[in-house]
Amino acid sequence: MKIKSLWLENNQIKKTTKLNKNLTLDVLIIGGGMTGLNTALELRKSNLNIAIVEQNKVGNGVSSRTTGKINYLQETIYQDLENNYSYDIAKKYLDSQKLAIKKIKSNVYKYKIKCDLDRTKSYVFTSEKKEVKKIQSERNILKSMGVKVNEHYKIDGKFNCKYAISVNDTYVFNCVKYMNQLKEILIANKIKIYENTRVKKMKKVADGYICFTENYKIKAKKVVIACHYPFFLKPYFMPLKVSTEKSYIIAAKVKDYKKINYITSTIPCKSVRYYKDKNNYLIYASNSHNICNDLNNKKNVNKVLKEAKKLNLKVCNLWTNDDLMTVDKLPYIGPIEKNNNSLLIGTGYNTWGMTNSILAGIILSDLIQEKENKYLELFNPLRVNICSDVDKYLNNIGSNSKSFIENKIVKNKLWYNDSVFFENKNDKNIATYIDESGKRHTVLSTCPHMKCTLIFNEVEHTWDCPCHASRFDLDGKCIKGPSTYDISYKEDE
Ligand SMILES: Cc1cc2nc3c(=O)[nH]c(=O)nc-3n(C[C@H](O)[C@H](O)[C@H](O)COP(=O)(O)OP(=O)(O)OC[C@H]3O[C@@H](n4cnc5c(N)ncnc54)[C@H](O)[C@@H]3O)c2cc1C
User: Fold this and answer.
1) In 3D, which of 481, 482, 465, 463 has the Cα closest to residue 473?
2) Are residues 235 and 354 in the same domain?
3) At 235, which CATH number?
4) If pLDDT is split at 50, 70 and 90, which confidence band does 404 have?
5) Cβ(476) to ligand 1 under 6 A?
6) Is 222 in the same domain as 339?
7) Which of the listed residues 67, 122, 197, 228 should we mutate to test ligand 1's pocket, taking the one with most ligand atoms within 8 A of CB?
8) pLDDT by residue (tens digit) across 66-119?
9) Are 210 and 336 contained in the same domain?
10) Which domain covers residue 475, as residue numbers?
11) Do residues 205 and 284 touch, judged by C-beta distance below 8 A?
């Protein structure tokens, strides 16, 4: 079994260079995932001077570890939005998701993108009697919005199903293939892409921002924060506004390819789709949880592997992924400061980032070009819903603080046997992992972002932040934000 996303297998794409000079731009896009690439694609005809900077490789972030569903049937989101806001807001969200699906289809056909896009039937199902009513309500709302919804009492034979609904006009694809080809299209359209270039901080100036990478400065009139979790605290203070949900995903070779995908209506959720290249695969995501609440990676992975065994699946790939969950279930797309259209964001997709990143591309490009967009208000990152949000903000602070304090004190020593240990040396908190060959990997054990104590992820062999999901490789290189600093440690420090 490989510990690697199936989408990143045989992923050969030409690297682009690291930034090697100062730049002056109209638009800087920070982050080369679905959000950054789709925004650049929408801007390609704008005559603006645009560049993307990516701290690792384009298309290797959260977007490379999804289940790749392009779907508007998203658990029971429409009744959640109706409860949080109104029927009209729920309907507007549905329209936005359908627009995004239309857009992705048109990109695929227009640019002849080979990304295994396939029309499949999508289900939301439950095996619990008490959930049936909720899914029935979702069916009623969708029907009233003009969607053709089918009812079922059985799905695919793999799961016990009390009740399910399905829609027909949804898709799956290989997101990494899609992003790789977007990268080539953008380069052909003279949009510059710099890889291995991390933005570490930003400064507001009269006509935009100066962004600082390790060695160079980029001055831009507009900056798009497309890096999933913003690397700065102020403005916006993201830890208050989102929680991070993590899931464990496996791929298994199966005999048949089926044109269906399904997801449960509850958390922890189970999500399934099929994929076909030289082989047929079933992809199964399970055991989703807030990262602050369940830190033992090995235990969580074992749980999913046990489920796979029960389903008779022979696992060939295993990986994890996390996404940002907003307090009201709507993404954050737009300006993050009042009266400032120079600093824009697209994030908080609540695990539905394929459609919502396409939408972010459309909305942010309209904003940059000062065009009207009817979805601007819906996704406004500065919205506050006093009725529903305040307790969730407090919840976010609560679970972050709990994870912060607990992990500082306990350091979860009991999980690790003798291969991982934490110590204080010369006033520095450090942690060491001794690998199978006996080699010692020592790092600083405090996350540079907000000073949480890191945990060792024994399955993927990374150091992970249990509060805001930054990740570092064995020797301390930051591989995922919000941290912008490494945690490397040298013995003589
Ligand atoms: C288990 C799971 C399954 C999912 N399945 C689906 C699905 O089936 N369908 C769906 O619609 N959505 C799905 N999602 C959600 C989706 O994967 C995400 O919402 C989406 O990929 C986020 O895209 P992004 O561009 O914001 O982030 P990313 O793809 O992570 O892109 C951000 C990029 O910014 C870079 N970066 C970060 N900081 C910096 C910096 N300081 N300087 C330079 N670069 C930086 C990163 O390296 C990264 O490449 C799933 C999520 C999970 C957790």
Assistant:
1) 463
2) yes
3) 3.50.50.60
4) confident
5) no
6) yes
7) 228
8) 999 999 999 999 999 999 899 999 999 999 999 999 999 999 999 999 999 999
9) yes
10) 411-480
11) no
